[in-house]
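Work Package 3 (structural annotation) set out to generate three-dimensional models for the target panel prioritized at the project kickoff. During this period the team completed the workflow that converts sequence records into discrete structure tokens, so that structures can be stored uniformly alongside our sequence database. As a representative example, we reproduce one entry of 323 residues exactly as it appears in the project archive.
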Amino acid sequence: MHIHKLNNVDAFIAFDCDESELDGLTTSGLVRRAKRILPGGAQDLARSQTYTYAALGMQRLGASAGINSTIIDSGTPDEAIAAFIDEVSPLVTSGAFLPDATKGVTEDDLAPLRENDPRTRIGDFANQCDAITAVAAGEAAVNGLDGITVAIESAIEANPTGADPQTLTDELTERGAQVVIAENAAANNGTGIWHAQVVFAGSKMGVVDHQVVESWIKTCDKPLALVPTGRLAFTAKALATCRKNNIAALPDFVTLCGSTIATWSDPEASEEDVKNTARQTAHALITEALTHPDGAFLASCYKAESFLKTWRTQLPFGRPLAP
């Protein structure tokens, strides 16, 4: 992992490779902006995107940028964003870093970089495809959503970090799920959202820890699956608690593969074809992973790592989980 510090703004990019390996590689990932963005979180986000690429059989790696700056009022010249755009522009042109907007950064902020970005269908459509793959993965995990009680973490509506909230709701409803918009997982130790068999959560990294899962087990008769709607939604302890209680904790790098499929899709393909490809891919990946005795998360890691071994000299250290 290499942390590249920018010179003209308090910002950095975490690349999921050594500095010496950057030449000729393509990386992409989220850009976040806040008063203080920690490199550790960016490194974890970069790793998650690396595993998405590997799960899809793409020879690309993850990266993630952080801009340490307070967000200013709309309509005021934004010096931090302007400096970031100016300095990363050569990296975008070379393909070394292709940024995606998330909390604190808008697609309009990154618009000056898009002319040289080789990808297609960036922005809202990509987020819609993340919702599609999250639902397809959840559907595979429980062998159909018709009649299943599903909770969507309410904070996703206010702060979508991956799956588009409206598309998520529409996809679930179309599949016959009984959908409720429920309390943030972090509130009241999770007791507000876990009256459902399947939970879609991921408003922030690590929003689901082992205490939240334990609360879910106490309040739901038959919890079945935890489906991330944002990167690194659950912790390692949460994963262990889910496995111990036969709950399918799905890998975020698969549930959110839709945006990656969309951005690298054939520009001549229709949006409906891209959505169908995303839906079928996520469903197939989770269906395959669930046959492994170690569970969907680890099985998906094994598959991604197997692909990484075909073109990387060594595997990255650490799997994509919140601390």
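The longest strand covers residues 27-34.
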